Structures are given as C-alpha cells and as structure tokens.
Amino acid sequence: MSQTSTETSQNIENSSKSTEAYKATQYLLRRIVPPQFYYRLRTFNRRYPWLFLPFARWRWRRWRKKYNINYNIAEPATPFPLEKDTDIVIEAYPRCGNTFAHIAFKFAQDREVNIAHHTHAAAQVIAGVKNKVPTLVIIRPAEDAIVSYLVGGFDPGLTVKQALREYISFYSLILPYRDRFILATFQELTGDYGAVIKRVNRTYGTDFGEFDHTEANVQECFAIVDRGYENAFGDLSKEIVSRPSDSRTALKEKVRQKYRQESPDKLRNKAEQIYTLLTQKNS
Asked: Whole-angstrom Cα distance, residue 188 to residue 206?
C-alpha cells in the first residue's frame, strides 16, 4: 500500500473514531429518555456532590481512556470532575466562556495544573468550596448564555424553558456560597483574564500565573481549542466549537427572538435577579 493510501486509511479511521467519541459524550439516557424528562433528571443530578461526582469521575475517566486519540493534546471541553489532586475549580453554565477560561488558565502557567472544569454542575462548585479548593465561577446574563447554548445545538430537545431552569438551578444553588468562591463576569473574563486570576491569587494565597490578555495570546488559545477538538472529535461544526464563530453570529438573532417569545416571564425575571445578586459584590 502506498504512503498516501496509508495516510488516507488512517484519516478515515481517526475520523470514524472521532465521530464515535463525540457521540459517546452524550449520555445513553439522553438518547432513550424523552427530553422533557431527561433534562429535569439532569438538573436534579447536578445539585448534589455525593450523587453527581462519583458517577461523573467514573464516566469521564472511562471516556478518555477509550477515545482520546492523542493524550498530548487535551480535548478542551469535556468534563473534568473534582479530584483529590485538583488545583483549581473553574465552572459555569454552558457558553459563559468555560473553554477559554480553562485553556487560557493553563496557557498562563509555567507548570502543570489540575483543573476541574466543564461539568456545568453546581455540585462541582459546592464540593470545591467545601474542600477549600480555589474556585472560580463565571457568569453571563441568562439571555446571552442561553441563546449561544441553543445555537450550538449541543442538546437536541432542550427547550428555552428548561435551559432557563438549568441556569437558575446552577446559580441559585451556589448563591449561599458566594463569599467562598471568586466570581467573574463574562465581560471580565474576555476583557482582562489576568486581573481575574490575580483576584484568585489574592483570595486564596496562591501563585498561579496571570494570563497576559493580548490579542496574540487570545488567538493562540483559540488555536489550542481548535487542535483539541480536532484531536478528540475530528472536524466539527463551528456551531459546536467553544470559541467565537461568524457562522454562529448569523443564527443568534433568530434564536434570540425565540428566547424572548418562549421564555416565561417568571423564569426570565428569576434568572436576571440571580445574576444581579451574584454580581453585586463585584461592583
């Protein structure tokens, strides 16, 4: 077989494995349980550390062992639950800058750091603060976060109403712990992440490297995100990759209209109230 044929076969094999790996990130329950029940069950499960973390650890260790194509290029957006050797927890509702926060934090360090991230579970934040692990939570206004989330198409069958319930559940459950973690708004994260990490260091007495928020460094982090996705999942739609994308921008206005039409006033107001309560200390 020629070298070209060998490379082509390898690419096909990797592409098939990557597609399988992406499908395997979706819970079996998501595929067999009607969405209106599955998402309520997921919201409940993410409330309690004792319930959520053991299964999440088992599941994602197993996924990485089976599907990671290149362990030297970490897939940036699949969950890492809290472990005994975790150095910092970085968590948020989806599409609040989770992936940039995780990758840019690692980029700024001159040593290996173990980051618990991307579970999107209040249980992870609660476990972090109770175990006295430095914990950073990112928040974005509900409308912006949910519109971006729905545009990505990560969760087929997820309604605007249920997305709001998940947003409210995540941030209301961590509200009682507000003085025990660092909160960064999406604007702070994307404007000067170094200043956010400086707050982490000042609060916890840590010496994490502070991200130098230059355009060159931001673009390098986006490149790392792309390489990580390609390593684990192959060539995915730009609607899915967790960084800014022109193709998503064109869809957002349509989804924003859907959000405003379908979001119940009571839930929308509750989400806005929680955002205000959490961010008051930052002002």
From this structure: 20
| Alpha carbons 187 and 255: distance in angstroms, whole number | 21
Domains belonging to the chain, first-starting first, are: 3-282 (3.40.50)
Contacts of 101 (CB under 8 A, 6+ apart): 90, 92, 117, 136, 138, 184, 189, 193
In contact, 194 and 148? CB cutoff 8 Å: no
- C-alpha 125/C-alpha 61 separation (Å) is 20
Distance from C-alpha of 193 to C-alpha of 81, rounded to nearest angstrom: 23
How does pLDDT run across 50-60, given as a tens digit for each residue? 999 999 999 99
Residues 142/167, Cβ–Cβ less than 8 Å: yes
Q: pLDDT tens digits for 4-51? A: 434 433 443 444 445 677 777 777 777 788 888 989 999 999 999 999
